[in-house]
Amino acid sequence: MSVCLFMSFEKPLNLIEALIFASDKSITEEEISQVLSELMEETIKIESIRKNIEQIRLKYLEMDLAIELVHLNGGYQFLTKKEYYPVINQLQIQRSRKKLSQAALETLAIVAYKQPITKLEIEQIRGVNCDYTVQKLLEKELISISGKADSVGKPLLYTTSGLFMDYFGINSTNDLPQINELIAENNTIGEQTE
Predict the structure, then answer these.
(1) Is Cytoplasm among this UniProt entry's keywords (predicted)?
(2) What domains are defined for the chain?
């Protein structure tokens, strides 16, 4: 073991901070414990990880930085503070090629609210073929294949992914707006007859 690596073990806070920073999605306490336990060849307890994470969170709160440590989707991730969202939004507008199309958003909403769901069920709700949209959502890792349905032909079942949670800044699908919150009572289709 190199001297440099040995010295870093004396600062578990820095190791945990580095793991959270380097992770492209939220990282759980269990994943951090696994990585550090393998590296140090001894069991690193979750309580110790949790205490260090809280110290890191407080450190970032005390410093006047644009980022903060956030508990998200069962793990931890560094995110930009909410007051900086307008500037980040502008960046996202400039990178519009990565934005989701209306069809992708509609399909993603259907999967989020009806999961697990087959492609045929998505198509029945949307009324159009969804092959391309489902493929793009799989490529972007916003949805994933969660198994096969028991119906004829054993079609694939789709659910939202952990990246979906990160992308929309929620911990679970329970954080999504309830459908009755989105529907106004005076919305109707066609003419009303008495």
Answers:
(1) yes
(2) 3-85 (1.10.10.10), 100-182 (1.10.10.10)
